[in-house]
């Protein structure tokens, strides 16, 4: 079943209406001293666990925000914003900067004619994706600052935010396949934990898991082969094998020299190759359709990966 993408546009110059929308989208807010000429507009695209909004606001002098239950990241495209999140720090952001709203933390903002690209993520979804990437338990993931690790990391998040916006708002994006949706969430999670200080960066030494025999590994491999067309995770693979995700990752490194996630991508790449070989060049299947079916959301990246593995572009395989 495809994942629907819900879109809407909104504009208002009423402080009460803006308060209501912002409170529903992000967090409860108050305008202690609204400036004159308030105008707020937003274009939004969202799935159940990922949202991206292009917001424009003018002449707002101050905002007090309560804590949000979402992970919200902003890339500033125009204007200037000063923010203070107490023990999580503060920042003055301008064009090209990025910042993070720490879940649950109240904040004070002073904004001046800004345009921003906001990404909304479920902390639970990000936690599960980070567990696949690092082995850190989802409940142990916490972000510790509103500022990115460096200016370069902040700009890298800005590139990711624009990619997410284009993926959710491009032509024909009324719905996403489950695999493509999972890859978008995973890409966002990986970029967030790379760009903003968090406990995954400071994780201490973890004692290695015990030995895993061939039978356990075979169960994991068989599960991947049978479910590669579904949005499965490393945790799902570990459950099927009867071990913890950390133990499974160690087993893959020890016996196969790879990771569970990399193996899953390779299985899907092989499946895409088989579909291209079997496809009728004059039929409905295209390279883009096959790539999307197997969770490769970027045609250019799919072509590069495919060429590196099979020695030719995917289009050449389809035309044989």
From TrEMBL:
Alphabetic keyword roster: DNA-binding, Transcription, Transcription regulation
Single GO molecular function: sequence-specific DNA binding
Protein name: AraC family transcriptional regulator
HTH araC/xylS-type domain: residues covered: 218-320
Source superkingdom: Bacteria
Keyword presence, Transcription: yes
Keyword Electron transport found: no
Phylogenetic lineage: Bacteria, Bacillati, Actinomycetota, Actinomycetes, Pseudonocardiales
Species this chain originates from: Pseudonocardia sulfidoxydans NBRC 16205
Pfam families: HTH_18
